[in-house]
Every structure is written in C-alpha cells, then in structure tokens.
Amino acid sequence: TIGGPKELTAFLHNMGDHVTRLDRWEPELNEAIPNDERDTTMPAAMATTLRKLLTGELLTLASRQQLIDWMEA
C-alpha cells in the first residue's frame, strides 16, 4: 500500500511526476473550486506516469497486471 493522498503525491514525485497531486480524501476531493490546484494533474503527466507504471519496474508483475485489468474493465 502507498498510504494516503500525501504519500501518493510523494510516490508520484519520486517517479518524476511533479505535476500530479492528490491532497484530499473522498468525498472532499470532489469539491471543485475555480483555480484550485489541489487534486489535479495534466494529461501529459498522467500519460507518462501510466507508461512508467505499465512498462517499468516500479510495480511487481502482479501489480502491473492488476492495473492493466482495471484499465481494460
């Protein structure tokens, strides 16, 4: 497990993704406030992160397969 929002953001930063951030838990993260940068990413950052997770050595084979299964569902 990674932990909570702070730990997930740190994990992503360690992967080189300095754009994506998760700050709040459900259901608070569903609140949209104009110009609020909390709980945001950009398409290119997410695509790069997913590529690294799906093709790299960051996850175990079982975890990579689980991610693929979720994406195909």
TrEMBL record:
Signal peptide: none annotated. Residues 4-72 form the Beta-lactamase class A catalytic domain. Pfam families: Beta-lactamase2 (PF13354). It catalyses: a beta-lactam + H2O = a substituted beta-amino acid. Its EC number is 3.5.2.6. SUPFAM superfamilies: beta-lactamase/transpeptidase-like (SSF56601). One of its GO terms (molecular function) is beta-lactamase activity. Gene3D superfamilies: DD-peptidase/beta-lactamase superfamily. One of its GO terms (biological process) is beta-lactam antibiotic catabolic process. It comes from the Bacteria. PANTHER family: BETA-LACTAMASE, BETA-LACTAMASE-TYPE TRANSPEPTIDASE FOLD CONTAINING PROTEIN. Belongs to the class-A beta-lactamase family. This is beta-lactamase. It comes from Acinetobacter baumannii.
